[in-house]
Amino acid sequence: MGTPLVLVHCLLTLLFVAVLLHGLARVVGSPRTGFRVRVDRLLAAVMVASMAAMPWIDVRAGPAAVVGGFFTAGAVWILLPVGRREAGSRAAMAHRLPHAAGMAAMAWMLSMPHTGTGPAHAHPGSAAHSTGPGAPGAGVPLGGSVITLSLASCLLAYALWSLTRPMPSLRSAVSAARSAAAATPSQHVGEGAMALGTAVMLVLPH
């Protein structure tokens, strides 16, 4: 891995660690939560920890199918409860879709061909083949590139929306949702940072 890529991975690791600590702080601050909320937060913590470790260790060293299946099941779990908990709520579905996309992105990265993970997996000529997990140069078919770019685009769009949500509105009339977001910006910033980091990880070699 070249020095610029190592630096990017270091910054991403710090980002994911910060998101993980923020999530743990939320869990400690609100211990009395329902079963589904606890599972949601557990899945998020496992995903963030895996993202932080991915640039440095080969998370595929274990049974990749099992690990990928775990995150695939996580994506399904995030979507399935919507109909039971908040039936007919489009806002609830819109909020949960990006989280499901993040889980799907993690499962997708685990299923892609290995291109060298961290310094321990670097090899001569790796710079010449440094491509993202969905790039054709990595031996991935065009369909894989389309999936990678689609997931990355969705996550990037959500990251921009979430990070700017707590910002003051340019309009005089402010909606209740934006006022609530401005009152508690940390959750939106954390979710936006996670989506942004995941989008970047999708297109980086790892």
Oligomer: single chain
Q: Compute the gyration radius: what is it?
A: 18 Å
Task: Quote the average pLDDT.
Answer: 75
- CA distance, first residue to last residue: 9 Å
Largest sheet: none
- Secondary-structure element order, N to C: HHHHHHHH
Strand segment tally: 0
Q: Which band does the percent of strand residues land in? A: under 5%
Q: What's the total helix number?
A: 8
Structural class: mainly alpha
Helix fraction, binned, reads 55-70%
User: What does the overall shape look like?
Assistant: globular
The poorly predicted ranges are 116-131, 135-139
Number of domains: 1
What does this structure look like?
The chain is mainly α and 206 residues long. The protein has one domain (3-113, 132-203). The chain is built from eight helices and no strands. Helix 1 (3-29) packs antiparallel against helix 2, helix 1 runs antiparallel to helix 8 (185-203) and helix 6 packs antiparallel against helix 8. The protein is globular. The termini are close together.
For the structure shown, list the relevant keywords.
206 residues; mainly alpha; 8 helices; 67% helix; 0% strand
Topology, pairings included?
Elements (H helix, E strand, L loop, with lengths): L2 H27 L5 H19 L10 H16 L2 H4 L4 H22 L30 H23 L11 H8 L1 H19 L3
Helix pairs in contact: 1-2, 1-8, 3-5, 5-6, 5-8, 6-8
Quick gist of this model?
With 206 residues, this protein is mainly α.
